[in-house]
Each structure stands twice: as structure tokens, then as C-alpha cells.
Amino acid sequence: MSAAALETARVWLVVVLTLLGLFFTLVSMTGVLRLPDVYSRAHTASQADTLGAGFGLAAVALTVGVAGGGFKSVLLLFFIFLTNPTAAHAIARAAFEEGIVPWTEGDDRR
Amino acid sequence: MADADSPSDGGDGSTDSTASTEPATGDAAGEPPTAGAVIVPVEPTSTLRSTIAHVADAAATGGAPAIHLVEIASWRNGDPESDERAAAAERVLERAAAWTAADLDDSEAPGAAAVEVVTAVTGAGDYLFGADDYVRVLAEYAEANDADRVVLDPEYTPVGNTTLLQPLEFALSNTSLSVETAPVDRPTRRERFRTEASAVRLVALFGLSLGFYFLLGDPTYWFDAVTGVATAAVVSITLSRVSLDSNPAIPRTPMRIARGLVYIPVLLFEIFKANVVVARVILDPRLPIEPTMNRMRVIVGSGLPLMTLANSITLTPGTLTVRARDSDLYVHSLLPWAREGLFDGSLERWTRFVYYGRRSARLPTPRERDDVAILQGDDATEELPIAAVDGGEPGSVSGSEPSDDLTDADEVTDR
After folding, report:
1. Reduced to 3 states, what is the DSSP secondary structure of residue B149?
2. Residue numbers of the domain that contains A28
3. Under CATH, which number does the domain B287-382 receive?
4. Which of B307, B323, B332 should we substitute to test contact with A (largest number of A Cβ atoms within 10 Å)?
5. Residues of chain B with CATH 3.30.70
């Protein structure tokens, strides 16, 4: 009885986590389309995505469980947390060294 | 720290200002008679011995009043282990001084007896990052000790594995000091002085990669065990010098990992909080962003601590580390809220907590230290170090104002 209730809670948690992941990925995409320049796009491309992937991987871990190797998705998250900011930094740094001036308020570029 | 004031014979001190300009880039043999003292930055390298032999010879024939053997501290006083590292530096300096004295004794040149040998540790008050920092320390020391010449050991590498020699030479050539790299034979195979150190790293990296392999595979299955050992061996042999820049030590490394585990939930919470704020801004139809570029001088060591801090800043939405130049981080912020959070320095304190412990984490915020600058917009306090070449469209900040900080802009394009 309580095992079934636990199972239901798990399924709902997976659904909620997946939706949260989708939401933050959607926000990330919107940001890439709406924001004005390479720097602010690098922000959102890496960041909202970190949480999007984070919730998605949490849902995966919960679905497959500990026996199914759920800790591997935790490891994946760990690597995303290392590589994601590094990639964002590389993009922004390349832009900076190219001499691209960040967009500020009042700038015509958009 | 051991330190001597100006050389004993003050008569020479007055002439060194004229002499300093003449030997532009000192020749190998040291034939121009230099009147100022010579500075030798010391690190335990394989060519230190022959560098000292060369310097002693040149000083004896050239009539330099003193040889200053200087160890530029790559640690910062008050950090854990700073005492041990200072003691190690003193031992190296002692040995170098003994070598110098012996060489001077052996020298036939008449000036040899007059040459004074001074040792000093300097630069321990700050974290030093690139060549510019080292040159600043050297120049200050030279100023205080009437020295006008620097002789570099060709193997001189004060920070980790990276060679600083060429940047150092370049930066020194912009000062009034004359620079010379000691013309000594470098071993064709680079043998590192601290060989016992790399054994520790090798074992540590082997254990780490083997542990990771077994985490993914099954250590009880013979095939996984054999391939795991082989893989870990390849990884540790090829990468131990690249991936670890200091030795794992027993109380320190586990403590850092434990404190890192404390930091992870804190960072996750920060990421979540900032993500919600940024998501709201992005979905807002008016898109109320106020992006600016900012500069923040951080007090963390170079290498892993700096990487941790820079990546933490990038992971936190609204702030993006664009450039790390020595201890200056150039951070792009999307919102004033994110910028203020950055200037409050909580991530910097947490990074210091992870790497140096709780006591070191107590320090004033970057804003209180006056280590922050906004580089764009109405509140800009500093020029953006970008030469506006093609990005300078009407309305952009550095396009409308003349850049008076040309050296900074040059540096950006140079690297």
C-alpha cells in the first residue's frame, strides 16, 4: 500500500522535474533569441541550460534508481558543471579578444 | 626577511644611474663595467648552479658591488603552509649563497673580494600571477637595493609548470633594469628538480582514474579490472604533470575535498536563486536588462582556486567571467542585481574557504577593498580595455571616449 504510494510520488516527482528542466531549457532558448549580443547570449546559453540539464538529469536518476546506475547521472551533472562554464568562458573570451564591445543600454545593435 | 641596505661602499652608488642606461641588453660575457648590484631570481632549477657561476664571474670582473639572490614568493604569508614554503625557500637561498661565495672565492678577478652576497625572500605579501607582478616585485626590490641588472636563470619558472621566462624578459625590458638570461647550457632533456614530487602526483592521479573507472565499471569482473589498471596507468603517466600543479598532501587535500562538498549545495542554491531571477527577466516582454562589463580583483591563488572562482561566477546566472588577467577577473553582468551580488564577494569567500579554510575566508568584500570597477554605462569608473576597432558603433562606450589606457588594450590583443 505505502509502496504503491511511494511509487506514485516518485512518478510525479519525475514529471515535475522533467517539466522544470524543460521550462529552464525553454527560458535558455528564449534568451538566446532575445538578448542583444554575444556576451549576454553566452550567459543564458550556458546558465539556464545548466539548471535545465540539472533537472533533467535529476529526473533520470530518479527514474532509473540507484540500482540502475543513477549515480552516473550525478557524475554527468558534475561534468556539465565543469565544462559548461568553461565553454561559456571560452566563447566570451574569444569575443573579448576580438574587441567586441559589450552591448549597453542605448546601443542600436540588437 | 634577510635584507641588506645599499652596498657597503657608497661611492659606487652614485655612478650606477649613468651605467644603468648603457648596457641595454647585457652581453653574454658581461664586459661593460656595471656599477649597480645584480639581482638573480632564484628557484631550485637544474641550471641554477651554472647561472650562479656565470653571475659570480660577471660580477667579479664587472665590479658589481653586490649579488642579490632573491626568491620571489609564490605563496602568500598567512596561508596554510606558507611557513614551510618560506623555510624551503630559505634553504634554497642558503645553498645558492654558499655556491656564490665559493665561486667568488675561486675567482681570480680583483673585484671578487668586494662583491657582497645578499639573500632575500620578497613578494610574500600578495598573490603574484603573471610576469607583470613578478617584475613589479623585482623593480621594487631593485629600487630599494640600488640594483640595476637582473640575470635570469634560463629554467626560471616561479609558478607551477608554466614557463615565465619570455614574458618576464619582455616585461623587464620596459623597466630601467637591464636584463640578461644567463648563457648556460640547458639540459636537452628537462629534468625537473622536484622529481620526488611527481611520483606523488603520479600515484594520486592513478588512484583517482582507477577509482573513477571502477565506479563506472565492475571492479570484481577481471576484464574491467585489467582495462582499468591499464587505462589509469596511461592517464597517470601522460597527464600527471599537466593535471596536478601541486602535490596532494594528506591533511590538506582531503580537507579541501570535504570543504568542497560543503560548497556544492551552497553553489547549487545560488545557481537556482539567480536562475529564477534571470528567467523572469528573459521572459519579461520589456527585457529589462542592464548589461555592463566589470572588473574585480580577487584574492585567491592562481591555478585551481582561480578556476573554481571563475567557473562559479559563470555558473551563477547573470554573471559571466570573460577574462582572467592575473588576479583581475573581467566579469560581464546582465543585471545590476547580479553585479552587486558579485561585488559582495560571497563566491570569493567560499572559494577561499574551500582552498584555505575557514579562517582565511574572513576578509572584506571586494567592494570594501575597493577592488571593483564598472567598465561601462553611466556608473562606469574605469575604461573598458578594448580598443574599439570594429565593435565601436555609435553609442557604444569605448567608441565615444578616447582610450587613455593603451597599454591595457595592447595586452588584450597581444595574448
Report:
1. strand
2. 19-97
3. 3.30.70
4. B332
5. 287-382
Over residues B180-212, the pLDDT tens digits come to 777 776 654 444 444 445 788 888 889 999 999
Parallel, antiparallel or unpaired: strands B37-41 and B66-72: parallel
Q: Interior CA angle at B414 toward B407 and A85, to 5°?
A: 105
Quote the mean pLDDT of chain B.
Answer: 75
B238: three-class secondary structure by DSSP = helix
A4 in any annotated domain: no
Phi, psi (deg, nearest 5) at residue B180: -155, 140
Residue A90 lies in a domain: yes
DSSP, collapsed to helix, strand or coil, labels residue B295 as: strand
Interface test with A, best of B320, B337, B390 (most A CBs within 10 A): B320
Question: Per-residue pLDDT for A107 more than 50?
Answer: yes
Q: Give per-residue pLDDT as tens, B101-150.
A: 888 887 777 777 788 888 888 877 777 777 777 788 888 888 888 888 88
Complete DSSP assignment for B261-282: HHHHHHHHHHHHHHHHHHHHHH
Q: What residues of B are in contact with residue A98 (Cβ under 8 Å)?
A: 391
What is the distance of C-alpha B387 from the center of its chain? 26
Nine cell digits for residue A7: 511509487
Q: Is residue A38 domain-resident?
A: yes
Instruction: Provide the chain A residues 3-22 that lie in CB contact (below 8 A) with chain B.
Output: none
Number of domains in chain A: 1
Bin B52: left if φ > 0, else alpha if -120 < ψ < 50, else beta.
Answer: alpha
For residues B145 and B34, give the distance between their C-alpha atoms in angstroms, rounded to a whole number.
15
Nearest by Cα to B339 from B408, B260, B277, B395: B277
What confidence category does residue B387 fall into, taking pLDDT thresholds of 50, 70 and 90? low
Question: Which residue do the cell numbers 540588437 mark?
Answer: A110
Return the CATH number of the domain spanning residue range B10-181.
Answer: 3.40.50.620
**Closest residue of chain B to A90, computed from CA coordinates:** B322
ipTM: 0.87
Strand order in the sheet with B372-374: B319-325, B328-333, B292-297, B372-374
Could you say which of A40, A81, A100 has the minimum Cβ distance to residue B334? A40
Q: Look at residue A56 and tell me whether its pLDDT is greater than 80.
A: yes
Chain B contacts of A43, Cβ < 8 Å?
278, 317-320, 332, 334
Q: In A, which residues are within 8 Å of B313 by CB distance? A: 85
C-alpha cell at A70: 543513477
B41-96 pLDDT per residue, tens: 888 777 788 888 888 888 888 778 888 888 888 777 777 777 777 888 888 888 88
Q: Is A103 contained in some domain?
A: no
